[in-house]
Specification:
The protein is of the alpha/beta class and 599 residues long. Helix content is 30%, strand content 23%. The radius of gyration is 27 Å and the shape is globular.
Length: 599
């Protein structure tokens, strides 16, 4: 078949098929693939534009395309802008294209807002008639003024970084918002805010904390307002006492679904009290998924407490089934299937499964498994079918610690508890040693879809004498992380040359470097590298030189589609990231949370 006929058949497909397929692609990728193919394709496609991690030259080209053809603005339905890149993306984009020019814009996500962006948004919000979803992240500015502007908007779904950044006294009710995501807040602030969201149906809190004693709770003048429309509540990764949760539940009498991931003390595992709370405060509750991680001072009566969740109230009336497990210092009780995407398999873990249901699908939600080698041989009860990221580690017992080694035969145990074929990322901690290079080679062959590897540099270089392993690493590994908080990766240029030859095909690298010459040498050795993250160990003697080198190279790096990114220092490690910014296909546009009026 000739190319002409192929193109003709492709172009003859109806618009509906293209629109359906292109929903899975970013707008910049669509333009690079189809812009010169057929104007009909570009003209009719709704664009979902995610500019996070997009190269500066690609960003500039796309902006020029919009300047030349202003009709593109009417095709943009979703827009994600981020200031995490060096070229101040949000400021640049908004200075070229005011948001009110995007007549069909329905979803807007802004990452790392500054005062300028907030003021620009406040000016434009009255003209964004079709905006339904607004998400902003990583904002340290005072955001009350911006939220005031949203009270008259048409936004239905809102995501905010911190509830603490809001002064409610100056805010009217948000009459259009039905779905709200909060990344961090305190319980006392949360209990004050419901009256400002009278139509709220969905609330997702990623981290909920308490900073007061229960006896001081009344000092915060909690109102009597009840969130009668709230049907769905999710609280993740939170440290909160059951007494405070009870106060919250008094404000949510019509909940239908409740998801809780809570760290706390033994009071959380009180089935009788939970039964009372559900019966009296949440009588309409249909779905209750929880994961309680409890620290233990002793093992006394813990099994009886966990078993109390196995009676008729839980099984017969609601069909909620729980499993639980204990270690020396903690207990974990959870509804099945296991709620979280992350799971840690500790040594000396004792598991207790509900006899009422099969445990085959218990861990279907788990995509990241942290596995202690001490627990590997003795563990044969459960199966992790969907794990994509495996972290291998060991216990540390002090200075005289004897490192446990992963052996060839241990891989057979791994195959018994998980589907290695689904693995895409492998992390080997410093505490976990490999008996020989053949162990890693065997593991990579048994898990052929691993593209990403994180390993301590000492461990890595001790394995690189095996030629077969080196060839396999060169062929398969695309992302490599050998950063170790200040431990310098390269001590001479010969190591850099060896490293560049073995990993000549990687697309992303994170490592520790303490010398500007090494950086230049590494750039040359890894000429195909599109994404380069470097940790610089902060010392008084060279930190100024390093900063000067980065600033001097910014023009050169930009010429080669590089960008230089600055991040805050952590634990005396000053993070500098110099990378050729490509669109990260793993970063999808932000999730839109919406509850229809029928929910």
């Amino acid at each position: 078949m000739s190319n002409t006929k192929t193109i003709t058949k492709f172009e003859s497909l109806p618009n509906e098929i293209f629109i359906e397929c292109f929903q899975y692609l970013n707008a910049t990728d669509i333009f690079y693939s189809f812009d010169q193919l057929n104007y009909r394709l570009i003209r009719n496609i709704p664009l979902y534009l995610n500019l996070k991690n997009v190269q500066k030259f690609m960003f500039d080209q796309f902006c020029n395309k919009i300047l030349i053809n202003s009709g593109i603005k009417s095709q943009i339905y979703s827009l994600y802008l981020s200031n995490t890149s060096i070229y101040n993306q949000i400021h640049t984009f908004l200075s070229l294209f005011p948001l009110d020019q995007f007549s069909h814009l329905q979803s807007l996500s802004l990452n790392e807002l500054d005062e300028y962006t907030i003021q620009k948004f406040i000016q434009m919000i009255p003209s964004l008639y079709n905006l339904r979803y607004f998400h902003f992240m990583n904002c340290s500015c005072e955001i009350t003024q911006m939220l005031v502007s949203l009270t008259t908007s048409t936004i239905q779904t809102l995501s905010i970084p911190k509830l603490e950044l809001i002064y409610f006294g100056s805010i009217n009710q948000f009459t259009s918002i039905v779905s709200l995501v909060i990344f961090y807040c305190y319980i006392e602030k949360l209990c004050q805010f419901f009256k400002y969201f009278p139509r709220l149906k969905y609330l997702h809190i990623e981290q909920l904390r308490q900073r007061i004693h229960l006896k001081d709770f009344d000092l915060y003048q909690i109102d009597d307002y009840v969130a009668i429309d709230l049907k769905h509540l999710i609280i993740n990764h939170s440290i909160i006492r059951l007494d405070f949760l009870e106060i919250l539940f008094k404000k949510t009498p019509n909940l239908k679904t409740l998801f809780l991931y809570i760290y706390g003390n033994i009071e959380l595992i009180d089935a009788c009290r939970w039964q009372q709370l559900i019966t009296s405060l949440m009588p309409r509750l249909k779905i209750f998924n929880f994961l309680f991680n409890v620290s233990l001072k002793s093992q006394n009566d813990i099994l009886n407490k966990c078993q109390s969740f196995q009676n008729d109230f839980w099984h017969e009336k609601y069909h909620w089934y729980t499993d639980y497990e204990t270690t020396n210092h903690s207990a974990l009780i959870y509804t099945t299937p296991y709620l979280s995407n992350d799971y840690t398999l500790y040594p000396n873990t004792k598991k207790y499964h509900s006899k009422s249901i099969s445990n085959f699908n218990t861990y279907n939600n788990v995509t990241t498994l942290r596995l202690y080698l001490e627990a590997l041989i003795d563990f044969n009860q459960d199966y992790f079918d969907n794990v994509k990221s495996l972290i291998l580690t060991c216990r540390f017992y002090g200075r005289n610690h004897t490192y446990l080694h992963l052996k060839i035969q241990d891989i057979e145990y791994l195959k018994m508890i998980m589907n290695l074929y689904n693995l895409t990322h492998l992390e080997i901690s410093l505490l976990c040693r490999l008996e020989s290079p053949l162990v890693l080679l065997k593991l990579l062959k048994e898990a052929p879809n691993i593209l990403s590897l994180k390993i301590h540099d000492n461990s890595l270089f001790s394995l690189l004498d095996n030629q077969e392993l080196c060839k396999y690493l060169n062929k398969t590994i695309k992302k490599l992380d050998v950063s170790s908080l200040g431990h310098i990766l390269f001590c001479d240029n010969n190591k850099i040359i060896q490293f560049g030859q073995i990993f000549s095909n990687i697309q992303q690298l994170r490592c520790d470097i303490n010398d500007m010459v090494d950086i230049s040498f590494l750039f040359n050795a890894l000429s195909k590298l599109p994404n380069f993250n470097v940790f610089f160990f902060r010392t008084n003697s060279i930190v100024v030189d390093i900063n000067c080198w980065i600033e001097d190279c910014e023009i050169e790096l930009d010429t080669y589609s590089f960008a230089v990114k600055y991040e805050p220092a952590v634990n005396n490690i000053e993070y500098r990231s110099a990378y050729r910014c490509l669109h990260d296909n793993d970063d999808s546009s932000s999730n839109d949370y919406y509850c229809s009026d029928d929910d």
